[in-house]
Design brief:
- The protein is an alpha/beta fold.
- 46% of the residues lie in helices and 12% in strands.
- It is globular and about 35 Å long.
- It starts with a helix and ends with a helix.
């Protein structure tokens, strides 16, 4: 939600539609760059979102910062966390994944990168 929330375009009126738009934008980004992308949401989107280009994931239990905890868990479980880049504007998550070896890009900066490929 950090990437979605980096642009005040009314996303809060329909979070599920905002999630679907982000998935489509990430698919365009992956098609243009060839990068592997996983998006982690705080809760499952309704209706469920599927993609053949990116992994669409969500926290196992909804709640405050649930997506951040799931991202941190995934980075910690990765065999090569130094190969990962996490897009976030959350200080706790940035500090946590950096300590694990992952790189961090700000959500707003990543959004600008996405806009350049769509």
């Amino acid at each position: 939600m950090n990437v979605i929330g980096s642009r005040p375009d009314g996303w809060w009126r329909d979070r599920d539609a905002a999630m679907a738009r982000l998935v489509r934008t990430l698919e365009d980004y992956c098609a243009a760059t060839g990068e592997d992308v996983t998006v982690v949401f705080e809760r499952p989107p309704r209706p469920p979102l599927r993609s053949t280009l990116i992994e669409v994931a969500h926290a196992p239990r909804p709640g405050r910062d649930a997506g951040d905890f799931e991202i941190a868990r995934r980075v910690e479980a990765d065999d090569d966390p130094r190969s990962l880049v996490v897009a976030t504007s959350d200080r706790w998550l940035a500090d946590r994944v950096t300590a694990l070896g992952a790189a961090v890009v700000g959500a707003e900066s990543f959004r600008a990168r996405l806009d350049g490929t769509s």
